[in-house]
Write a structure and sequence with these properties.
The protein has 243 residues and is mainly alpha-helical. It has one domain (11-44, 61-236): Ferritin, core subunit, four-helix bundle (Ferritin, Up-down Bundle). Helices cover 65% and strands 0% of the residues. It is built from seven helices and no strands. Helix 6 runs antiparallel to helix 7 (210-236). The longest helix has 38 residues, at 10-47. The two termini are 25 Å apart.
């Protein structure tokens, strides 16, 4: 993805950029559709709390249910950050990475929300249970923050889980342009992936539903690969991950 730029003629380069824009637009449409579908499912579940729990489904406070709920929220922010950087840079490598992340995580989010529907479980944890409580060891809220990613705001301002960006950080990303936007996006997404890997590893060891465990293991492999790529992309821009 990174490396020497193609020396093809201008017409060919323009055609590639046009194809990339069409590809991104198609992916964005798919991602947005999944996000809206997920939001509609959440609203429906909140309006009708009488849906019975499916036979053989995991318990509402299980690792399976907790991972599905929390990772759906975690993934939604990754998609949001990818859409933001798309409009802040013309760099093909960064835009391609953002497209891949948005497409992959929007699809995974749809699967997680779909399982909760099939299980007859709510999309939001009951009572005052903090995010990531299913991981054990007091990992919700600020505690989960320590497992992946640097967040100087100490878990406030919208930082619900490990690695998530704050509202202020998202607003800053939306104000930056060019190389500054690229570097900040790569740093934020590095933090985000570290938090996501910690959550997925916890599900791989704690979840009981085989298909969910396989998805979690796939997330670990995919996001660890992207962490290495983002480290290299930051180095090419004279920067490094935070923390």
């Amino acid at each position: 993805m990174t490396g020497t730029r193609s020396q093809a003629d201008p017409a060919a380069g323009a055609e590639r950029r046009k194809t990339a824009r069409v590809r991104w637009a198609a992916g964005a449409a798919v991602a947005l559709a999944l996000l809206f579908a997920g939001a509609a499912a959440v609203a429906s579940a909140q309006e009708d709390g009488s849906a019975p729990r499916a036979a053989g489904a995991p318990a509402p406070d299980s690792a399976d249910a907790g991972f599905a709920r929390d990772m759906a929220v975690h993934h939604q922010q990754a998609v949001e950050m990818s859409f933001i950087v798309r409009d802040r840079t013309e760099d093909e490598d960064v835009r391609r990475l953002a497209y891949d992340i948005a497409n992959t995580q929007a699809n995974q989010r749809g699967m997680l929300l779909g399982w909760l529907d099939l299980w007859g479980l709510p999309k939001v944890a009951a009572g005052d249970e903090p995010p990531m409580a299913w991981m054990g060891g007091g990992s919700g809220g600020d505690g989960g923050h320590e497992q992946g990613g640097h967040h100087p705001d100490g878990g406030s301002d919208g930082v619900l889980m490990a690695g998530m960006a704050s509202h202020a950080e998202l607003e800053r990303l939306a104000r930056l342009d060019g190389r500054q936007a690229e570097v900040f996006f790569l740093q934020l997404m590095t933090d985000h992936h570290k938090g996501g890997v910690a959550m997925a590893e916890a599900c791989a060891s704690r979840c009981a539903v085989p298909v969910e465990k396989r998805l979690a293991l796939g997330m670990v492999e995919g996001q660890q690969s992207e962490l290495g790529l983002m480290r290299d992309m930051l180095a090419e821009r004279g920067a490094k991950p935070r923390g």
